[in-house]
Amino acid sequence: MTVATSLAGLALDDSIRLEQQGGILTLWLNRPESRNAMSLKMVTAIQQVFSQIADDVSIRAVILRGQAGHFCAGGDIKDMAGLRIEAANSGSLQPYVDFNRRFGAMIEQVDQAPQTVVVVLEGAVLGGGFGLACVSDIAISRDTAQFGLPETGLGILPAQIAPFVVKRIGLTQARRLALLGLRFDGKMAVDLGVVHQVAQDDIELEQQLTEIIQQIKRAAPLASRNTKALLHRTLNEPLEQLLDDAAQQFAQAVGGAEGQEGTMAFIQKRNPNWFD
């Protein structure tokens, strides 16, 4: 098992665990005793990893999954208890603001990561875990996974998650899920557009993941990064300007090393040199 140079020497909290096979990095949420509930330490560790690998073209994809049969049960209640004490001592709500906004920054960082982000969803996919699912590029799920936005039932808001849920499934469905606090399984998650594929058992889930990784490897590293960035831009930029810039990127790709290698590999009926 190799370790990317960009991750060498990175000191991480044990709330996550990393595994790397070639250009595929798996980030395990590693708090099984709490169904991988997301603590501030976990948020910080995830941010550190994505910051370290942002410019590392050798890492093609990041697989996010949870230990012990659960993806993520949402925010850590113990952290919330600590924030109450901090807020009471300071006489200010700022500790809550800072904590919540930090989580939103992490979600946005994962959303904008240049690597292809794949989530493997099992067990609890609630609150913050639901938010992570909504910023993935590819989401696969067990049919028995339990999704939901339980915040309103706890007297709080899905404050940092809401924009990403709306982008994923649309406003009308997001309203229904958030306002009713509905729970639903992997099959309904496919119907809603939260996930792309659902598996009937653990063996099928691993087979789907293996197939997705093989497909990721077929995509040229730089072309994949640039395509993801272009897709993000379609939501925010004027069309004519975007298409002009996209044409320039296309020309550079065709004349670049990946474009030439991809063309030759197609003609010669072989795998391109980035497929490993």
UniProtKB/TrEMBL annotation:
The Gene Ontology biological process terms listed for this entry are:
isoprenoid catabolic process
**Entry similarity comment:** Belongs to the enoyl-CoA hydratase/isomerase family.
User: Care to name a GO molecular-function term for this sequence?
Assistant: catalytic activity
Q: What is this protein called?
A: Enoyl-CoA hydratase
Q: Which domain of life is it from?
A: Bacteria
Pfam families (alphabetical): ECH_1
